[in-house]
Amino acid sequence: MNSQKTISGFSKLSKLGKIKWLVENFFKDPESVMHELKSYWLENEADQKLLDGISENTISNYPLPLSIVPNFVLNGATYCVPMVTEESSVVAAASSASKFWMERGGIHAEVLNNLKIGHVHFYWGGSEERFAALFEPMRIKLISESKPLVDSMEKRGGGLKSVSWKSFIAQEPGLFQLFVQFDTRDSMGANFINTVLEQFSASLQDFFKNQDGLNPEEREVDVIMSILSNYTPDCLVRTWVECPIDALGSFPGKMDALTFAERFYHAVRIAQVDPFRACTHNKGIFNGIDAVALATGNDFRSIEACGHTYASRLGKYQSLSQCSIDQGTFRFWMELPLAVGTIGGLTSLHPIAKRSLEMLENPGANDLMMIIASAGLIQNFAALRSLITTGIQQGHMRMHLNNVLIQSGATEEEKKSATLHFSDKTVSVNSVKSYLEMLRSQRINI
């Protein structure tokens, strides 16, 4: 172990102190790296301080582009949807699919339920029958002693919605769980839920300590943890697109609408029966979902974890989206658990997240659920449309062409020439580099 690369008290160093230690111990050109890291700081010190406060041990900013998807018609309303992503083809594909469905009635969505879930996990030595007999007075105590914490949320129409219990004794001796459902309205609600659950933990322990009629063994309870679950199957949104098959139009390679619809249906079916394909299929859905979640300051990691768990709810990992062809109508839809917020947390702190929500006309959590889920659906539509017609690489690599040209140090003149040259050709890193070498050799020989 190199002692120069370890440190005690790093968090207590100033921002410049952190950078100085880092560049001197981990980079070959400390001065250049320090200058580069500082070049990404915001000029406005107050704004930079705000960003620094979002995380720990911050040394610089990591810029990503903020893009928009226009022509996004959802439930009759027209949006410009913000996206933050590093994958160039995502926004282009979503924009193309948005316009496609704008001309065919738009996207539709509805929220089916919006309950969040939390648990208190604990070990107790009594039987399931004994716990069932004790549960009603316990439940009354839990609700009563948490009331000061939920009053404010209840005034907004949310709060504590149900308290039940589960036994895992068959799998793990002595293991029980309080299963609690919440409505957190327009906030994601993590802090609210965890605060209430920790109060439940204290009330639970007090109940077993002081309840009449318990033997010494029944008074012993070991609370392991009190925590929300990111799996929220009762916080569910449905989104869909549909139109007569004939209205789908025609596609590359002279593919007619019925052939397209049938191939699309089979592409979805493959993702329903093959988990290898389902993984990539669902990743395409989250290309759209994550980009909007990030732009609006929501936790895309919890959204993905929940979505992938939901995709496995029937005992096998499979497609989140579905397709049908029935009586001349093409329908493509998805049901997805999606816990998001529009107040509190990063949504109220990050300046661009606030502007993104303003761009969406300051939606409530239910509206944002529908927007984000619909972004995932049309992203999935765009990917499948490419896969079953031209293939994914033609469009993807064309969007990637500009990145390759930049990495190769192409001039503006070379970029224009390469864009024209590859307009009807498959793009690869090697083919672009070979083309640039050819252009440059011609220039030298002139």
Protein architecture, described:
The chain is an alpha+beta fold and 446 residues long. It folds into 4 domains: 3-52, no CATH class; 66-112 and 236-390, 3-hydroxy-3-methylglutaryl-coenzyme A Reductase, Chain A, domain 2 (Alpha-Beta Complex), CATH 3.90.770.10; 116-229, Hydroxymethylglutaryl-CoA reductase, class I/II, NAD/NADP-binding domain (Alpha-Beta Plaits, 2-Layer Sandwich); 396-445. It is 49% helix and 18% strand. It has helices spanning 15-26, 30-39, 45-52, 88-102, 128-155, 190-210, 257-273, 275-295, 300-310, 351-359, 365-387, 392-407, 412-421, 429-445; strands at 66-74, 77-84, 108-111, 116-124, 159-167, 175-183, 221-229, 236-244, 321-326, 329-337. The strands form 3 sheets. It has a 4-stranded antiparallel sheet with strand order 3-8-10-9. A 4-stranded antiparallel sheet has the order 5-6-4-7. Helix 8 packs across helix 11 and helix 12 packs antiparallel against helix 13. The chain is globular and about 100 Å long. It starts with 14 loop residues before the first helix and ends with a helix.
